[in-house]
Design a protein that fits this description.
Chain lengths: 296, 325
C-alpha cells in the first residue's frame, strides 16, 4: 500500500528539517568557532576566522599548560570535583532515604524545613558573613560544604526510592537488618541509575562552579579553573575598551599567541571535560528528569 | 533545574505506624535520624543562619564590633531605613526596570523555543538526524555561564561572526560593539538564556508529546488533516496544561534575573542596562562594603520572589491540582 504524501506535507518536512538544522548550527557552531580560534595563529585570527584554522598552531595550549596558575587551577577543580561529588551523593542519598520513610518522627516538619530552603534564602551578603564566621574563607572546604546538599536532587532520589518494591526491605528487616543496613545493602544498590544521574549533576556543578572560588577565596592557590576564566574574561572585557590606536599597535606585532587565543584555549580546556562525560549524562539525565517530572 | 519539580504531586499520606511512645520511636529511628543529621546541620549552617543574618538589613552593620553575631546585635538598629533609602534613591527604578526587562524578554524568547523544538523533533523524519540535533541542543545547558559568556563575547566582538554576517548582508557597514552599548544588553541576555536552555527545556515538552495517543493522529489523517493541522488540533491542545503551568512558574521568577549572566556580561559601559537586583546587591555589599544596604536590597529581592512563588503555587494548584510544595 503506497500513499503519496501531498506536496504541502513534503514542504512541511523540509521546513522542519531546516528549522532543526538551524537549531543544530546555532548550538554547535559557537563551540566549533572557539576551537578553531584556539588552534589558529593569533596574528592571523584578527582577519576573522570561521570554519577551519588557517595557520594551525598549538602555541596557545602550550602557553597555558606552561602557566603555573592555570595548572594549579585545574588541579583544584579536579580535586573539588573528586572529593565533593561522592560526599554530596552520600549526604543527599542518606537524607533521601530518611525522608522516604513517612513514619519518621516529625516527617512533615523535616520536609517543610528543607523544602523552604529551596524558595527562600538569606542571600548574598548574609551568606558571605556566615561563611566568614565559620572560618571557611580561603579554605578548600568552602567548595564542598555550602553546596553539599541539593534539596531538589534529594527529591529526585527519594521519588526513585519510593517506587522500589517494599517487599525487598521488609524481607531484609525480618532478617534483622537495621535502617543503616537497609540503606547501605538493599536500597543503595537498587538506586544506582538515579545515583549516577545525581553524581553527574553534582560533578558537573563542581566543575562549572566559579562563584565560590571567586568570592570566598583570595589565595591564588585556591582559584578554580572557572574562576581563572572569569578573571581572563574581565581582563578581556576591559581590554576590549582600549583605544583603537592601542589595538592597532598591538596587532602590528606578529605574535602567535594573544590574549584572545589564550582565552579561547582556556575556554576549550574548561569545556572539554564536560564534552567527555556528556555521552554518559545523555543516557542518564533524560531518565532522571523524567522521573522527577512525571512520577513526582 | 528549576523546571522539573513543578509536576511534583503531593505524596499519598500514610498513617504513622509503630509505637505511639515518642521516646521509643526516637530510639527505633536512631539510624534514620543519624542519616538525616548531616543534612539538618547543613541546612542550619548554610540556609537558616544566613536567613537569621537578614537582620543585617535592619541595623547599621559595623563589622568592627567583634565577630559576626556580636557585631550584628551590637550594631545600631535602624528599622526600615535601608529599604527606604533603596526605594527613594534613583537606582531603584533603573534596577527594577533592568531586572524585569531582562527576565520578561528572556521569557518572551526562551519560552516558545523549546515548544517549537519539541514539536519539530517529534514531527521530523530521520532518527539519526533527530538524535544528533537533540543531543547537541542540550549541550549548552551543561557548560557554565563563564564559558557561555566567553563564547558570547567572542561571537559579538568587533571581528566576530555576528558582526561579519551583518556586514556580509549589508545590514551594517561598521562593526557594532554590542556589549559596550547598553541598548543591546537585554537582547543579548535573553538570546543567551535561550541558547543555553532551549534544548534542555524541550525535554519536558517532548515527554508530554510522547504520551499522546497515536490513534488520534491516525484518526485526524483519515479525516484529511495535514501535518500542520494535526499539530494545531492534537499536539498543542495536549501540551496546553504543561505550557500553562510552566508559564505561570516563569512569571513567578520575574525578579530572578540570573546573577551569572548579568555579572559576567555586564561591564562599566553597559551598567545602566545590565545592573539587576543581584548584581547591584553584590556590588554594594562586597565591593563597596555597604553591607546593610546590600542585605536590604537582597532581602527585598528574596521576599518578593518568595511571595511570587507562593502566589504562583496557589494558581498552579487551582489550575492543575499540582503543587510545588
Amino acid at each position: 500500500m503506497f500513499r503519496k504524501y501531498p506536496l504541502s506535507d513534503r514542504l512541511f518536512d523540509l521546513l522542519l528539517a531546516a528549522f532543526l538544522a538551524g537549531v543544530f548550527l546555532v548550538t554547535f557552531y559557537p563551540f566549533w568557532n572557539i576551537l578553531v580560534i584556539s588552534l589558529n595563529d593569533a596574528t592571523d585570527s584578527v582577519r576573522g576566522l570561521y570554519w577551519w584554522p588557517r595557520e594551525f598552531t598549538l602555541d596557545s595550549y602550550r602557553t597555558i599548560f606552561r602557566n603555573g596558575e592555570l595548572i594549579n587551577s585545574v588541579q583544584v577543580t579536579v580535586l573539588r570535583t573528586v572529593i565533593g561529588t561522592p560526599l554530596s551523593v552520600l549526604a543527599i542519598s542518606m537524607m533521601a532515604y530518611a525522608l522516604s520513610k513517612r513514619e519518621l518522627i516529625a516527617w512533615k516538619w523535616f520536609n517543610l524545613f528543607f523544602i523552604f530552603t529551596m524558595y527562600f534564602g538569606g542571600g548574598l551578603i548574609p551568606s558571605y558573613m556566615i561563611i566568614k564566621s565559620l572560618g571557611l574563607i580561603d579554605s578548600f572546604w568552602v567548595f564542598i560544604f555550602p553546596g553539599l546538599i541539593g534539596v531538589f536532587l534529594m527529591i529526585l532520589i527519594r521519588t526513585y526510592m519510593e517506587q522500589l518494591p517494599a517487599e525487598l526491605e521488609e524481607s531484609a528487616k525480618i532478617d534483622g537488618a537495621n535502617d543503616w543496613q537497609l540503606y547501605a545493602r538493599v536500597v543503595m544498590p537498587l538506586c544506582v541509575p538515579v545515583l549516577a544521574t545525581i553524581a553527574l549533576f553534582v560533578g558537573i556543578g563542581h566543575w562549572n562552579a566559579w562563584y565560590d572560588s571567586y568570592i570566598y577565596t583570595y589565595n591564588p592557590d585556591l582559584k578554580t579553573l572557572q574562576a581563572v576564566l572569569v578573571k581572563i574574561l574581565n581582563q578581556f572585557q576591559t581590554g576590549a575598551m582600549l583605544t583603537e590606536a592601542e589595538q592597532l599597535a598591538n596587532t602590528n606585532k606578529r605574535i602567535p599567541v594573544s590574549g584572545e587565543s589564550i582565552r579561547m584555549a582556556v575556554t576549550m580546556v574548561a569545556t572539554i571535560p564536560v564534552l567527555l562525560v556528556y555521552p554518559f549524562i545523555q543516557r542518564y539525565f533524560v531518565k532522571g528528569i523524567m522521573m522527577g517530572a512525571i512520577k513526582g | 533545574m528549576e523546571h522539573p519539580n513543578i509536576m511534583t504531586t503531593k505524596p499519598p499520606r500514610t498513617v504513622a505506624i509503630g509505637s505511639r511512645n515518642w521516646k521509643k520511636k526516637l530510639s527505633a529511628q536512631r539510624y534514620l535520624l543519624a542519616m538525616l543529621a548531616p543534612a539538618v546541620v547543613w541546612a542550619v549552617l548554610f540556609c537558616y543562619f544566613p536567613m537569621a543574618g537578614l537582620y543585617m538589613a535592619f541595623v547599621n552593620y559595623q563589622p568592627s564590633l567583634g565577630d559576626f553575631w556580636t557585631s550584628l546585635f551590637r550594631s545600631e538598629f535602624v528599622g526600615f531605613e535601608w529599604f527606604r533609602y533603596f526605594f527613594q534613591n534613583g537606582d531603584f527604578w533603573i534596577i527594577m526596570r533592568n531586572t524585569v526587562a531582562s527576565t520578561m524578554l528572556t521569557l518572551f524568547i526562551s519560552f516558545p523555543m523549546p515548544i517549537l523544538i519539541a514539536i519539530a523533533l517529534h514531527e521530523a523524519k530521520g532518527i539519526l538526524f533527530k538524535k544528533t540535533v537533540q543531543t547537541v541542543s542540550y549541550l549548552p545547558h551543561f557548560i557554565s555561564w563563564v564559558i557561555a559568556a566567553n563564547i558570547i563575547v567572542t561571537m559579538l566582538s568587533s571581528d566576530g561572526i555576528v558582526n561579519n554576517i551583518l556586514k556580509f548582508f549589508g545590514v551594517i557597514k561598521e562593526s557594532i560593539l554590542f556589549l559596550q552599548e547598553g541598548k543591546y544588553f537585554w537582547w543579548i541576555v535573553a538570546l543567551g538564556n535561550t541558547w543555553k536552555d532551549m534544548g534542555y527545556n524541550a525535554i519536558i515538552f517532548l515527554a508530554a508529546i510522547s504520551s499522546i495517543n497515536l490513534d488520534l493522529y491516525e484518526a485526524a489523517r483519515v479525516d484529511g488533516a495535514g501535518r500542520f493541522r494535526q499539530i494545531w488540533h492534537i499536539t498543542l491542545p495536549h501540551l496546553k496544561p504543561t505550557i500553562v503551568i510552566l508559564l505561570i512558574l516563569a512569571l513567578g521568577g520575574v525578579l530572578n534575573a540570573g546573577f551569572d549572566q548579568h555579572f559576567l556580561l555586564g561591564n562599566g559601559l553597559n551598567r545602566d542596562y545590565s545592573d539587576v537586583l543581584s548584581t547591584y546587591s553584590f556590588r554594594y555589599g562586597l565591593q563597596n562594603s555597604m553591607f546593610s544596604y546590600a542585605t536590604a536590597v537582597g532581602m527585598f529581592n528574596s521576599v518578593v520572589a518568595f511571595v511570587l512563588v507562593v502566589i504562583v503555587n496557589q494558581a498552579s494548584k487551582k489550575l492543575n491540582n499540582q503543587s510545588l510544595f
